[in-house]
Amino acid sequence: MARIAPGSEAWVIVGQEELKLHRPSHALAAFRRADPERGWLRGWEGYWGYVAGSLHFLGRHGEALEAARETRRRFPRSVYQIEYETREFAALGEVDSVRGRLEESLTLPPGLWARGYVYLDATQELAAHGHAQAARRILDDGLRITAADTSDTPAALDLRANLLLTAGDWDELSALARRLAPRDRENPAWLGYLGVAAARTKAFHTADSLSAVLAHGNFPYSYGLPDLWRARISAAHGDPAQAVARLQGAIDHGLVFDDRLHLDPSLAVLRGYAPFDELMKSRD
Prior knowledge:
Blueprint: H1 10-20, H2 24-33, H3 46-57, H4 61-74, H5 79-91, H6 95-105, H7 117-128, H8 132-147, H9 154-167, H10 170-180, H11 188-200, H12 204-216, H13 225-237, H14 240-252, H15 274-280
C-alpha cells in the first residue's frame, strides 16, 4: 500500500515496525513519508509523537522539540503534546520550561493516562540527563498528586507504583503491590514490583521466588513484560549478565524497543555495563 499510495498512512505502520527492530533512523524516514494531512493522521497527535520520539532517541532534541510544538499547534487541548514537549525540555535541561508544562498538564483531560503521568516521564528524563535534584523535586510533586488522587483505575494505581519505585519507597510499594496482585493476576507488573522491592531490600529468596512465578505464570498478551520484570529483579539483585539476558528475552518475546528503556530506573545500574550498552544501541 505504501508503494501504490504515496503519503499513505501505511508508512506509519512501517515506522512502528522499524522501531520494534530498534532502527530509529529508518523509523523516522518512514514516518516522514506519511502525509500528516491525509486520512485519520490529520486527527491523531500520536503521529507527531512518533516523529518526536524517533528524533529523541537519535539525540536530535532540538528537532524533536519542533515536532512537539507542531503537535501543540494542532492539538492544544491534548495532554500528549505536553508530554512530547516536556520530554525534550528535560533532555535539554530547561527545568523551568518542564515545570511550566507539568503545571499545564494538570489543567487538561488526562486521556488514557492517569492524572499526573507526565510527572513520571519528566522525572525519569531529567534523571537520565544528569539533573538529579530537579528530578527529585518533580518526583515529589508527582507523589503528592497521586496520593491525593482517589480514583482506583489500573492506570492510576500503576502510576502510583511507578513513582514509588522511582523514589525507592520499598515499603509503600510492597504494600500497594501485595494488595493488588491477588485481584489482578494476569498483570505481571504487581509481582514485578514486589520482586524488585524484595531484591532492593536484600530479601533475595523472595525475589527469586517471584521471578520464578513470572517465568512460569500465565500472563496473556504480555509481550515480554514478565521477562522485563525479571530483568529488573536481576539488576536489583546485582546480576548484570542475567539482567541483560532476560532483557533480550523480553525483546524476543515482543517487548517494543523504545527510548524509555534508557530511562528505566530499575535498569539504571546497568549503564556502563558493555553488554547492556551494546543492547541499547540502535540497529540502524
